[in-house]
Amino acid sequence: MANVTGTNPQTKIDPAGVAAGSLGGKTTIDDGVVAKIAGIAAREVPGVYALGGGAARVVGAIRDALNTTDLTQGISVEVGEKQAAADVTIVAEYPVSLQKVADDVRAAIYRAIEDLVGLDVTEVNVTVNDVHIPSEDDHEEQKAPQEARVQ
To answer: InterPro entries under this entry (predicted)?
Structure first.
């Protein structure tokens, strides 16, 4: 369900001199927008390597290769008229405290939805489904390309 708001009964004056809430109409915020905001907030947390489960990450890797990243990957939201709840699945980097990363992700999503969308957040459930361990492959990708052996 999309978040729909009507006019606000509390009147505030904005800098342009128009009474906020005095203009008629409604605002509809789609569930996908709330999920995208939650996904962006979760990705910004230090210690989060990726979002989503195994299959979602495979599809995400293909999308990344095509420059069409899905910012809602690993995020599920339920949106009501005044409240929202979110479920997020993350892959944490090694070695970080999993409880700290989960708490930081939860706090970031709470802040983002409440500040940017204006909804009360009832809960944010965080599932850590994997830990990314840096390997030799990751380090070799970051190295400068080697000179060709044959010219």
So the answer is: Asp23
Exposure string of 35-66, with b = 16+ CB inside 10 Å and e = fewer, is bbbbbbbbbebebbbbbbbeebbeebeeeeee
Q: How far apart are CA 86 and CA 79, in angstroms?
A: 9
Domain ranges, ordered by start, for the chain: 31-56+71-132
**pLDDT per residue as tens digits for the range 55-73:** 666 666 666 667 767 788 8
Alpha-carbon distance values, 103 to 46, 72, 99, 127 (Å): 11, 19, 6, 11
Q: What distance, in Å, lies between the first and last C-alpha atoms of the chain? A: 62
pLDDT in tens, 93-140: 999 999 999 999 999 999 999 999 999 999 999 999 999 998 855 555
Element (H, E) at 118: none
